[in-house]
Amino acid sequence: MAAWLRLSRVCLRLQGRMFFRDLDWTLATDQQWAVLGANGAGKTALVQLLAGSLRPSSGRIEFSAGIEPARDIGWVSFERQKALCDLDAQHDISEFLETAVDAGTTVRALLGAGAGDDTTEIDHVAGRLGIAALMERGIRFLSSGEMRRTLIARELLRKPAVLVLDNPFEGVDAGARTMLRTLLAELLAGPTHVLLLTRRPQDIPGAITHVLLLDHGVVLASGPRARVLRHPQLRHLSGDHAPAATALPAPLDPAAHARPAGPLLELTDVHARFGDNEVLDGISLRLDPGEHLSIAGPNGCGKSTLLALIAGDNPRAYGQQVRVFGCLCGSGESVWEIKQRFGIVSNQLHLSYPRRSSVFEVVASGFFDTLGLYQSCGPLQTQTARQWLALLGLATRADERFDTLSFGEQRLALIARAMVKSPPILMLDEPCSGLDQANRRRVLELIDRIATGSTTQILYVSHEADELPMCISRRLEFRRDARGRLRLETSR
Length: 492
Fold this sequence. Notes:
The protein contains 16 helices and 19 strands. With about 500 residues, it is an alpha/beta fold. The protein has 2 domains: about 5-235, P-loop containing nucleotide triphosphate hydrolases (Rossmann fold, 3-Layer(aba) Sandwich); about 255-490, 3-Layer(aba) Sandwich (Rossmann fold). The strands form 4 sheets. The protein has a 6-stranded mixed sheet with strand order 5-6-7-3-8-9, with helices on both faces. It has a 6-stranded mixed sheet with strand order 15-16-17-12-18-19, sandwiched between helices. Strand 10 (about 265-275) and strand 11 form a beta hairpin. It is globular and about 70 Å long.
C-alpha cells in the first residue's frame, strides 16, 4: 500500500501533557482522512507536528518522496488567520478613522502573494469562493466568514500537495457553506491530499474514507469511516452529557446593575462606511429593559460593525444617534465608561487578545476591560474569576498560558471574561464559534441561566439557527429591501 504519510510510534509532550502516545498512523494515497475530536482533543497539535512547527518527543514522521512540509502543506486555521491579521495590524495607522485611506493588505494582494502574478487564476478562484466583490477590500474589514473563504482561496492558489482544513465551515453562513461543500467534494475527488479537522461528525463529507478519532490527546479509533463513526465515544461529541448545574457567581456590585426605566440601547438611522463600502445604511435598533435580542444575517452584512458602534469600539458612533443607557455617544462619557456596561465576546476580541497571558489573567482582565491584566485583583475579584472558570470547565487550566488552549477552550475563557463583572448587557458575537457540541450546549444553557437568573440582558449575534438560546425574546435579521439595501427587520 503506497502511503504519502507515515507516523511511527510518535509521542508529543506539550505543556506537561502527553499526546499521541506511540501513535502509528499511515495515510495511503487512495485515502482521504478526517481528524475528529472535541475541544482540546489534540487536532491542531497533530497538524503542527505534520507541518514541522512542533517536533515529536519521540518517534518518526515520514512523508513520501517529493513532499516537503514547509513548502507543500497548505493550512487554513484560526491560528493562521491571527498571524496574518497581526502582521496587517503592524502597518495599520488608520485605526478605522473616517478619513483613513490605508486599507492595509487587500484581498487581492493576499491572494497574489500566494499565486504569483497570474491574475486570471486569482479571479477564477475568488469567483468560486464568492469573494470576487471583496478583492480591493482590506482584510481587516472582512467578516469572519469572508476571511475564512479568503484564506481557503489563498491556499488553493498555492496548489499544495496536502491541504489541511481546520473546521472550514466555522463562521460561514448557509450560502457560503453550500459553496464550500461543493468545492471540498471536488478537492476530495482530485489529486490533492485533504486532511479535514472537525469537531462535528455531521461536517465530514461523504468522500472522506477514513477517520482518526481523538480525545484529550489519545487516539480512540482510527480506520474506515463507517467503523469509526460508530464508536461509543461519539455521544460525548454530540453533547449528550450535561455539566452539573452550579450557581451563578453573585455580582460584586449589585446596585450598579439596576435596570433603567428607559431603553438600554437606542440607535436611529445609523450609517457606517469603510472606504467605498457602505456597511450600515440607515439602521435603527432599540433594546428595552428585560429584552433579550438576537441579530442574524449573512457574512459581511454589518452585524459585527453594529456591535462595535454600540460598545464604543468604532468612532463612527460619535456624531450619530447612538444612545447607550440614555446617553448620546460623544456627549461626555468616556469609552471606558461605556465599556463598563458591556461584556463582549467576538472574533475581533479573540484575534486581538495577547496570547502569552495566563487563562486566569484573561478572565480577570474582564473586570478592567483591558487586553491583558495590568493591575492586581482583590480577593473577591479573584474568587469570582475562578468561579466563572469552574462554570466553564476551565478551573484546572487557570495557570496555563492562553495560547496553549485549543481555539474552543480559548473561546470559553473569553466568555468567562465577559461575565466576571456581571455586565448589564452581554454582547455575544458568534459565541459558539469553535465549540464542540458539548460545549455549545454548555454555553447556550449558561446564557439562559444568566438571562433568567440575573439582571444581565443578552444581545446575541449568530447565523446558526440551532445556536440560539431559549431566552431570546425578539429576533432581528438583516434583509435586503426593494432597493437592495440591507435593513434590520423583525424575524419570525
